[in-house]
Amino acid sequence: MKIGFYDDFRPCIVKDDGVVDITEQVKDLDEGVPQLLMQKIITGFDGLRSSLQKQEASGTVIPADKVRMRAPLPRPGKVLCGEGNYMEGVPIDPPRPLRTFFKSPDAVIGPGDTVVFPTFRPVIFNHEAELGVVIGKEAKQVSEADALSYVFGYTTAVDVSARAPVEDEAEVPGTPPHHYDKSFDTFLPIGPAITTADEISDPNNLNVKYWVNKELRQDYNTSDMEHSIAYMIATLSNVMTLMPGDLLLAGTNHGNLGPLQDGDFGEIEIEKVGRNGQPVQDSLKRTWDPHALRKPSEMAERREGLKGTPNAGTWPFQPKGG
Fold first, then answer.
1. Which neighbouring-strand residues pair with 99?
2. Spatial contact of 45 and 151, defined as CB atoms under 8 Å apart
3. In this predicted model, what pLDDT tens digit does every residue of 294-310 receive, in sequence order?
4. What is the value of pTM for the model shown?
């Protein structure tokens, strides 16, 4: 089942040809705040499942071209992102520590909303297509073996990033501090829905694609993650309590990352999860070579150089049973 919001954040089930309204089925949960409503749907889903399945089967379908889809998590409590979490074709042994960072929940936008670039310069803006993981219940010190049972579902996510326009991404005067460059407003498109976990047998075997103006840029499989979804959840739950409605971004394969610029239209699609697109706007009309991509072979060489570095090792907080 795919759960989302449409128009003025009315709750719905998303189908291939449109949406089915579920306002009546969840009216007792609604406090007028979309994020809180989605969190209550998440935590109460087992009790709602039967009525939602009936509505999905028999409810009136509103055609897709008659609705405006919204972000299914309008303002997550936490957004945690995997950093450099893909091997990119180079097995890494021993494994490196899991690295993550926070991204502002206020960066979230939904399908069709506009990615708006800030006026910082000099920077270049990259797309990073990623699998988004929605936490379904409170997770504290969970084991890797049990970690996926704490997932409510999955969504598409694009970690839009501002970077210095140099290969080594060295500091350049006027460039935003590291990781702030990912938290500008509109820098986190997600959606169009949350696909419930029962529809995804293995989140570490999904194809991820990203197009810019219908030209395929990123094309990879989540099986290339260095640290699996289960490992990420287990490890992070040993640092902080993960709550229903929190969002984890699993990282991206950096091969073929390229620039976004004014007038572009970017689209992400994840197998079994969904497809989501946004236009791009830049008041400064900055331009870059759209084919100046990070070649997969170059990224592999970069990863090869990480082998045996002092950073290699295991995360200091080992999950129970992991």
1. none
2. no
3. 666 565 555 555 554 44
4. 0.90
Closest CA to 105 of 175, 37, 35, 56: 35
The residue type of 217 is R
Q: pLDDT tens for residues 245-254?
A: 999 999 999 8
User: Is domain 79-304 given the CATH code 3.20.20.100 in the classification?
Assistant: no
For residue 123, give the nearest of 166, 159, 84 by alpha carbon: 166
How many CB atoms neighbour CB 308 within 10 A? Answer: 10
Cα–Cα distance, 185 to 113 (Å, whole number): 12
Other CB atoms within 10 A of residue 89 CB: 15
Q: Is residue 270 a contact partner of residue 208, using CB atoms and an 8 Å limit? A: yes
In eight-state DSSP terms, residue 77 is S
3-class SS at 208? strand
Which segments of 146-264 are extended strands (E)?
151-158, 161-163, 188-196, 207-212, 215-221, 247-249
Domain positions in the chain: 2-70, 79-304
Helix 45-58 to helix 34-43 angle (10° resolution) is 100
The first and second tokens of residue 137, run together, are 């219940």
CA distance 233 to 127: 24
**What single-letter amino acid sits at 149?**
S
Give yes or no for a contact between 217 and 121, defined as CB atoms under 8 angstroms apart. Answer: no
Which letter does DSSP use for residue 166 in this model?
S
Q: State the DSSP string of 295-307.
A: -HHHHHHHHHTTT
- Going from the C-alpha of 2 to that of each of 13, 53, 56, 235, the distances in angstroms are 6, 11, 10, 27
- Report the relative pairing of strands 207-212 and 161-163 from DSSP bridges: unpaired
